[in-house]
Amino acid sequence: MFRRTAFAALATVAALAVAGCGDDTPAASSPSNSSSALSGTVNVFAAASLTGTFTQLGKDFEAAHPGVKVTFNFAGSSALAQQINSGAPADVFASAAAKNMDDVKDKGTPTNFAKNTLEIAVPKGNPGKITGIKDFADKNKKIAICAAQVPCGAAAAKVFAAAGITAQPDSLEQDVKAALTKVSLGEVDAALVYKTDVLSAKDKVDGIEFPESRKAVNEYPIATLTKAPNPDGAKAFVDYVLSDKGKAVLTAAGFDAP
Predict the structure, then answer these.
(1) Which residue, among 228, 243, 221, has the nearest Cα to 64 in the 3D structure?
(2) Residue 225 has what DSSP assignment?
(3) What pLDDT score does 37 carry?
(4) 1: Cβ–Cβ under 8 A, 6 or more apart, which residues?
């Protein structure tokens, strides 16, 4: 009787041991999930008007993915499109206008992630006594606008047409940040920039809204590039920009939802 009881007990222990080994199998394979962790550098080409916002998004993204470094190339969207088409190693392109995104040959499907509107920027205190968009036709005013091939320049042309004026700019800038700098340094009486730029430089410039700005609202598209050196990182960054966290940063900077 004792032998049969002991044998049964040993059989039970053996069965439990085998079952325990089976339970360990999934746990042993779980570390393989870490192989999907992001790593390397994500090269983001972004419109100059996104400088402050995307710099913050890059820091937030790096904090969420410790193995990743985000680098930025900020410039006019037209110049960035040319660089990408010439073979520059970009993973993501964020443009200030659909036209410049369309110019890029090898890209994924673009998604609009923000809107922006033009605003008149003047030095603090408005020493040039600028009152509205019609002052951009006054030869006695020092004016800066973006060049026509740049999204802010194309938008400026639309508002000038809506206002029925012929602008008399003293300088044509290659990106919106250059136009804003002219105002910040007091080199011009006014410049046409985006409302987000006025907000970002509110300690140095004042903003003047004008009704014609509604005729030229810029949609901002973002896309991964098909020849991205880091495709996984590129997709993850785009997803982050489109996430609720990304939207919150954009909204705080003054961008409107698409």
Answers:
(1) 243
(2) B
(3) 84
(4) none
- Helix ranges, the chain (H): 2-29, 51-64, 77-85, 98-103, 151-163, 176-184, 195-200, 231-242, 244-252
Taking the CB of residue 4, how many other CB atoms lie within 10 A of it?
8
Token representation of residue 228? 């991205």
**pLDDT number for residue 158:** 96
Q: Are 191 and 118 in contact (CB under 8 A)?
A: no
Within 13 Å, how many C-alpha atoms sit on residue 137's CB side? 11
pLDDT for the residue 36: 53
* Phi, psi of 214, rounded to the nearest 5 degrees: -70, -15
Q: Does residue 32 contact residue 60 with C-beta atoms inside 8 Å?
A: no
Cα 161 from chain centroid? 29
Find out whether 241 and 95 touch, Cβ atoms under 8 Å. Answer: no
- Answer yes or no: are the C-beta atoms of 236 and 58 closer than 8 Å: no
| Regions in the chain scoring below 70 on pLDDT | 1-36
Q: Which two tokens stand for residue 238?
A: 């785009």
CA distance 196 to 187: 21
